[in-house]
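Folding follows sequence. Below is one example:
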Amino acid sequence: MVIEDLFRRPYHEHLNDIIKNMVDGVISENEVLVQEIKDWLASDVRKSMLVGEAYYLNKTDIHEKKKRDAEWKSNVKLEHGFAKKLVDQKIGYLLTKEPTIGTENKQYGKLLGELVFNRKFLKKLKNTGKESINKGIAYLYVYFDEEGQLSFKKFPSEQILPFWKDNEHTELSSFIRVYKETIYMNGKKEFQTKVEYHHPNGINYFVLEGGKLIQDVPAGIESTYHFTINDKPFLWTRMPLIPFKYNEEEQPLIDTIKSLIDNYNTQASTNADLLADIPQFIYKLVNYGGADLKEFIDDLNRFKAVKLDEQGDVDKLQATPETDATEKELDRDRKSIYEFGRGVDTTNENLGNASGVALRFRYGDLDMDCNTLESEFQASLEHLMWFVNEYFLITGQGDFTKEKVNIIFNRDIIINESEVITDCSNSVGILDDKTIRENHPWYNEDVEKRLEDQKAAEKKEQEEYLDTFQKQQKTVPMGDE
């Protein structure tokens, strides 16, 4: 790290030096921020984020790029939601099931489950995962809600201009949030560009107008604290914005598959144009006796006959468009989309009957990509846990800063249930019953309680049977035995 910094200094140091070296107000701090904002709004990184979100919503480039070169031609524009399917596959595979919170401290685990990793947060975590895949990186902002509970808000990634402390982009020194807000001026609806500059000493609020930052009076101009305790202001000692990355490079999925999706949409749409524009039959007319072709079609449809001059003739030619090459191209494109998008093509006819080994092989790319995503999310959740532990300490719920906690993602793994059930049956006598049950595909936490209830019911039934039998034995006379 030290050697790397010799060649490339952290951005916050570079920015601070720019501000410190300003001479007699030749350039102000606000002007530096304006230039950074302009560069960010025009950057390829931000544009890629917007493209990733658009393609997830199936709003692709074909609407703008596919043109009609003649009025009579069709201009079909087919869009295929590959991006959405791949993103949802990854999220469904890794983040749909509730994670397991592992800690030896029962009180700590209970607090985490009730106050932090509840259903509301898990839903937000799933949406954060979707954002990170679509845009390369996602952000959760840490704050206290109106009831004083620790909460997290997802900021759209394209609104955040980060200033990192290090080259690996592991911790923020400050950041700018740029977003549009609707206001009404003189009875008219207008959009205003709001700017929030979050730094170690608090937050400054601006409005961007005419290339200048103007203090946002309604927002309070500035805030020198993040929260208050008994009316006493406090600042987090860390920047309260947690990055969640899709991968180390912060590269969105769309960068890998956009050209393939565009080509698929173009080929499919062009093929649809061909099928729409080429008629099923072409008529060959010799010495047609009508006035024009419109009259010919009218006579043919109405009377099933046409007028011909002497030695006239009508012939019908079969029009058979060649689409085999297009279909092969579409098939090749589809395979490439799932290969490089690291997903599973569920239309594969061999997928349904695949064995457990074959299924694991087919899900290998998806599993590998989710390994990378999980690794990045584990680092982010460790960062998040610092705020959680501080929250518990501040609110007097306990000092858990030295407690270890493992957050285990429970993946929605596709298996061949019949094979697993057979393996469980074959393990009787080799493994204990509970271990076998835990590996059964239908097992869940309720099973143990139901088994206990079942055993209790069976025991009660046996006791009632024995009691009844003993009573009957006592009523039988001695001489009748």
Summary: The first strand starts at residue 100 and ends at 102.
